[in-house]
Amino acid sequence: MNLSITEGMSIESLARKYALQNAIEYDGKANPGSVIGKIMNEGTEFRSQAKQVAEISRQVIVEVNAMSPEEQKAELEQLAPELLVKKKKEIIKELPALENGEKGVVMRLAPNPSGPLHIGHTRMAILNDEYVKKYGGKLIVRMEDTNPPTILPEAYDLILEDLDWLGIEYHEVINQSDRFGIYYEYAEKILVLGKGYMCDCESESWRKLKDEKKPCPHRDTAPDINVKLWEDMLAGKFELGQISMVVKTDIQHKNPAVRDFVAMRMVEEPHPLTGSKYLVYPLYNFSVAIDDYDMGMTHVLRGKDHLNNTIRQEYVYEHLGWDKPVFIHYGWVSIDDTVLSTRQIKAAIQEGKYSGWDDHQLGTVAALARRGIHPDAIRQFWNDVGAKSVDIKFSWENLHAMNKDIIDKDAIRLFFVWKPKEIKITGIDKLQSRAPLHPERSELGVRVTELSGNITVQITYDDYENLKPGNLVRLKDLCNLEMMSDGSFKYIGNDLDVLKKGAKIIHWVGPKALDAEVQMPDGTTISGLVEKAAENYADRVVQFERFGFVRLEPDENIIAFFAHK
Length: 565
Ligand code: GLU
Description:
Layout: H1 3-6, H2 11-25, H3 32-40, H4 50-65, H5 69-79, E1 105-109, H6 122-135, E2 137-143, H7 155-166, E3 172-175, H8 180-192, E4 196-199, H9 203-211, H10 223-234, E5 244-247, E6 261-266, E7 280-282, H11 284-294, E8 299-303, H12 307-320, E9 326-330, E10 333-334, H13 342-350, H14 365-371, H15 375-385, E11 392-393, H16 396-407, E12 412-414, E13 416-418, E14 420-426, E15 430-436, E16 446-452, E17 456-460, H17 461-464, E18 472-475, E19 479-483, E20 489-491, E21 504-506, E22 514-519, E23 525-530, E24 541-544, E25 548-552, E26 558-564
Parallel strand pairs: 1-2, 2-3, 8-9, 10-11, 12-24, 14-20, 18-21, 22-26
Antiparallel strand pairs: 4-5, 5-6, 6-7, 13-23, 14-17, 15-16, 18-19, 19-20, 22-23, 24-25, 25-26
This protein binds glutamic acid.
C-alpha cells in the first residue's frame, strides 16, 4: 500500500474532496468521470477496487452537487484548501505597436490640475507609461494650468501622488504656467506670418459669422497692425475680454468647430502659482500644440473626444512648418455609478457630503487605493482595453475580478461577524481554534483563539435565524454543534463528517473580538465584530470570510473599507 499517497485516506474522503474541487470548477456540478479518474491516479491499489470507487464516487457526487457553490467552497477550504484553484488567468493582451515607435518615443500626460486623478484619467496615464516603457524614451507630465478659475492648488501634488501610486515612471514635470514667454513668442510669429489675427468682435457675432462660413472684418488685417494690437494687449491697453488673438484655420471647413479658434485671451483672476504676473493667457489648443512640438512629442495619445482639437492643433503645426507627431485617439469610456466631475466633487466636499478627495464613495485614484484596489489591477484593466477607438462601458466588476486575482494570495483571512448574535456552547469547557491565516499558504501560520469556562461565541444573525433545534452546524475551524430546544448549542465533536449530515459551515468570533465598522462604497456602514487579530493588519487588505475583501484603516478602532466580494 502506497501510504505516502493515500495516507490512510478512504475512497470516500478522496471522492469527496475531488468532487468538491470538480464542482467548484464546473459551475457547481461535479462529473463522475473526472472524479473517478483522479482517485485512480492516486495509487495502483485503487485499480483493484474500481467498482467500489465508481459506486462511492457517484454517491458522493449526488451529495456534493446538491450543495450551494458557497457551501462547496467552504467545505473544500476545510478539507483540502490546496485544491481550491483560482480561475485560469486570462492571457494578458499586448498593446498594439506604435507607428514609428522603434527609435524610442517622447510622450506626455497632460492633466488639468483642477483636482486629483480619477479612474477615467488612469487610462491615459497607464497607456502612455506602458508605451514609454515598451519603446524607451521619455514621459513628461505637463500640468495644463492655463485656466486659473478651475485650478485646485493642491492638485499639483495630488496628481503626482496618484501617478506615483499607479507606478507611472515619468521623467519630467512641467507647468504650462512657466512657459508663457514661449506662447507669446509663437503667437506673435503666427501674426507675423499672417496666419492669425487680433479680433475685438463681440464673441456671439464672431461665432455666428463662423457658422455661416464668413470671415469677420478683422480676418484680413495686415500683419503689422496685428502685431501692434498684440503688443498693446500684452501691455494691458485693453479692457478685459475686449480683444483676443485668433488662429486661422479654414473658414469654409465643413466642421464648424474647426473654423478659426481663439488662441490667446485676457484673464483677470490671479493664478495660484504666478499670481497676477500675466494678463494674457493661452487657450488649450494653442498651448498644447506649441508644447507638444516644443517638447519633442513623437506620439500624442488622447481620447476621441479630442478629435476636433487635434484638427485645430494641426493647423498650428502647418502654419509654423512643423512635423506633426503621431496622433492616436482611443474610444470614449462611460463610467456609471460614479461621480467623476471635479466641480461636483469639490462642491460636495465643501458641503461635507464626502470626507475629502479620497472618500471611499468616490472614483478617485486615492479612493480606490483606500478601498484596497491594487494599482496593478488598474494597469491590467487598461492594458486589456487597450487604445482602440471603439467606445466602451467601464466595468467595475471586471476591475474587481482582476483585483481579486492580485490581492487574494496575500489577503489574510479573518472572521467578521455582522449583526452579531451571542450563542452559548454547552458540553465542553475548553476549546481552541487554529484557523489558517491563509488557506493556501500554511507558511503564514494560524490565528489562535482559546475559549474556556462558560463558552459563548458570536455568530451573525443571518445564520442564526435559519437554525432550528436539532440542526447541526459547524463553526469553521472550531467544532461542530447541535442546536438544543432551549436555544443553546451542544458541542458534538470536531469530525468533518458532520457536513455530510447537512451541517452548514458558519463563521464566528470569541469574546475578545473587537468592534468593527465596514464602510461600503454606497455610503452605508456595516457594524459588527472582528477577530482580535485584525489589529495586526492595519493598512492591509484582508478578506473578511463570507463577506468580502476590505482594507483596514490604520486607526485605533477597526475601520475597514469595502473593496469587493
Ligand atoms: N489637458 C487635456 C485634458 O486633460 C489634455 C488633452 C490632450 O491634449 O491630450 O483633456
